[in-house]
Amino acid sequence: MVGSGLRVDLNSTCLVEGRRYKFEAQMKLLTANGDPFDCIKSKGYADPLACPLLGFEYVVNGTTATVHYSNEEPSEFNSSTWNPYYVIFTVSHSLAQADSAFFMVHGPAPNIGIVLDRVSLDEYTTPPANCNQMIPNGNAEVRTEMKVVL
User: Fold this and answer.
1) Contacts of the segment 39-44: beta carbons below 8 A, 24+ positions apart
2) Which of 37, 51, 70, 140 has the fewest Cβ atoms nearer than 10 Å?
3) What phi, psi does 73 have (nearest 5°)?
4) Per-residue pLDDT tens for 103-125?
5) 108 upstream amide cis, omega within 30 of 0
6) Per CATH, which fold does 6-123 belong to?
7) For residues 56-85, average pLDDT
8) Cα distance between residue 145 and residue 67, in whole Å
9) Residue 55 forms beta bridges with which residues?
């Protein structure tokens, strides 16, 4: 791993193949001196400015596998406040069959600390469609990774 982070062992028998789960947390990043640190979500893994990733490492029949997920929250990371972090993922056959598993939040770079609050990992149910609101992001003031010029 480029930067270390936290690791939480899971009861892998609770992860059901094909079910969707949502990992959520509030996050801040700090330098070794305790100063706020801004990461850039568009930077790739191993870039010193990359934001942390959620990953699962698991063992099936003695073989270790890892899968990583990026933050799906569209806003830019802001070092002056708590930043929402969430990932929605579907449990694969191999993860569901794991003999052991843990999730980790790691990166961005050495000497950058990750502070998490309000961490949860829950089964996810897709919200019902709202046909009265056909445009899902009607708030043009909120910046997303998909940029729109008005």
Assistant:
1) 39/77, 39/108, 39/112, 40/77, 41/70, 41/71, 41/76, 41/77, 41/145, 42/145, 43/108
2) 140
3) -65, 125
4) 898 877 888 889 999 999 999 98
5) yes
6) Jelly Rolls (2.60.120)
7) 92
8) 22
9) 68, 104
Which residue in 72, 79, 76, 68 sits closest to 27, CA to CA? Answer: 79
Global pTM value: 0.77
* % residues pLDDT > 70 (the chain): 87
C-alpha–C-alpha distance, residues 12 and 22, integer Å: 16
C-alpha to C-alpha distance for 86 and 4, rounded to whole angstroms = 19
Task: Provide mean pLDDT across the span 38-50.
Answer: 85
Q: Domain ranges in the chain?
A: 6-123
3-state SS string for 49-114 = CECCEEEEEEEECCEEEEEEECCCCCCCCCCCCCEEEEEEEECCHHHHCCCEEEEEEECCCCCEEE
Question: Is the Cβ–Cβ distance between 87 and 22 less than 8 Å?
Answer: yes
